[in-house]
Amino acid sequence: MQVMEGADSFTANSNRSSATVRYNDVLDLEVGQTNGRITMSFVPQNQMSNENIPDNQHKPSIHSILENDRSSFQKVLTGKLYLQIVPTATEMKHMNRILTNHFFGNQIFNEKRYPTVQEKQDLAIKILEAFPHLKKTRMTPEAPKESYFFWKLGGKESGYHTGIIETRVSNMRKDVAPENRLFRQKKLQQT
Fold first, then answer.
1. Which of these, 48, 74, 51, lies nearest to 62 by C-alpha position?
2. How far is CA 20 from CA 17, 34, 85, in A?
3. Coil, strand or helix at 4
4. Confidence band, pLDDT 50/70/90 cuts, at residue 189
5. How far apart (Å, rounded) are the C-alpha atoms in residues 167 and 105?
6. CA of residue 141 relative to chain centroid, distance
């Protein structure tokens, strides 16, 4: 990895990716070496500070939810998202699984309530506020910037909602016990 410093930014280049980060955008930067590999991690300036928020008003940020997840997603978070690199589709689905489980898991499985269109739309917007470079993932040039995550009616007058949040929530609903599902198909009685 090569790191080139400028007056107000640094550029990190490796054989896989390149990113330019402005010093003003970084709260904390750590560069180290592990097993002969140079590692770099930093906390972005736009990450919400939770220190002065009372417990009853504490709402975790997208950053803190992903940072607290102890899965392999940490490599994507520090190696791509914080460097403003768009992750692969598989990595995006992994991030989506973490966030939908956090925001909607209890609601679907314990409160027996499905997320509203607005709640899914709000999550999509929160993701883009946390990682503005992900607006590059929009489905079409005319689509809203959050369309990869959630698009009401797929941009049509009627039909189904689209996006990876909608797909994940639909899959979560399938895991609800049949007796607890809000919408059940009636079985046709054979005569």
1. 48
2. 10, 22, 10
3. strand
4. low
5. 14
6. 21
Contact (Cβ atoms closer than 8 angstroms) between residue 160 and residue 93: no
> Is the predicted pLDDT of residue 154 greater than 60, yes or no?
yes
The residues, ordered by sequence, that sit 6+ positions from 21 with a Cβ below 8 Å of its Cβ are 9, 10, 11, 12, 42, 83, 84
Residue 176, pLDDT above cutoff 80: yes
DSSP summary character for residue 185: P
pLDDT value, residue 86: 96
| Average pLDDT over every residue of 30-58 | 54
> Cβ atoms within 10 A of the Cβ of 178, count?
6
Q: If you ran DSSP here, which 8-state letter would residue 39 be given?
A: E
Domain boundaries, the chain: 1-47, 59-179
DSSP characters for 73-109?
HHHHHHHTGGGT-PPPHHHHHHHHHHHHHHHHHHHHH
| CA quadruple 16, 20, 25, 29: dihedral, nearest 10 | 60
Per-residue CA distances from 38 to 9, 15, 31, 115, 174 (Å): 19, 12, 7, 42, 43
State phi, psi for 125 to the nearest 5 degrees.
Answer: -70, -40
Structure tokens at 48: 């919400």
